[in-house]
Amino acid sequence: MSGAASGDTGTRDRDGEGRARNARPRDGLGRPLPYGAAGVERQPEGVVRTPDETVGEAQALLDAGKPFHAHEVFEDAWKSGPESERALWRGLAQLAVGLTHAARGNVTGGARLLRRGAGAVEEWAGPDRARPYGLDLAGLTGWARALAAEVERTVAPVDAAARAPRLCGDT
């Protein structure tokens, strides 16, 4: 175990290759827990998935109330996918992070990221690519903007699982 895990705050958690990695367990919304606490299994980083696998895995995580983890799946897609699709996957990741912040009670950050993600998804979509990989981009844009307005109006955390979007619509 690294120095930070053993209580020495002068060192950082490192992975096997020496890169800084926070080894603290996390809850379902990605918040760090104390060392030694039982946390939610983390998403592996750098996984290359097909777009359909990305959408399926992200939807399962969203449905389970784990938007932080869904964001990491979308982040893998934007980092490993074709340059032409990076804005789409980044926008979807922003939607998941926006839901994460809204569920944590961060009204300002949640609303801001939901709107930023909605703008990115809307901008990426066009008449010739309105439903890439079965994604309902218009529905996601509407969901994000409505949730952002609700979060600002109620100023209360949302239930991430109950408010999870349907990435491919109601199908």
Detailed description of the structure:
By secondary structure, the protein is mainly alpha-helical. About 50% of the residues lie in helices and about 0% in strands. It has helices at about 50-65, 65-80, 85-105, 105-125, 135-155. The longest helix has 19 residues, at about 85-105.
Structural class: mainly alpha
Question: What is the strand tally?
Answer: 0
Instruction: Assign an overall shape.
Output: globular
Number of helical segments? 5
Instruction: Please indicate the percent range of residues in DSSP E strands (runs of 2 or more).
Output: under 5%
Distance between the termini: 46 Å
* Mean pLDDT rating: 87
- Poorly predicted regions are 1-10
Name the quaternary structure.
single chain
Helical percentage: 40-55%
Q: Supply Rg.
A: 17 Å
Main sheet attributes: strand count, strand direction, barrel closure: none
Instruction: Output the helix-strand order.
Output: HHHHH
Search tags:
0% strand, mainly alpha, 171 residues
Quick overview of this protein structure:
The chain is an all-alpha fold and 171 residues long. The chain is built from 5 helices and no strands.
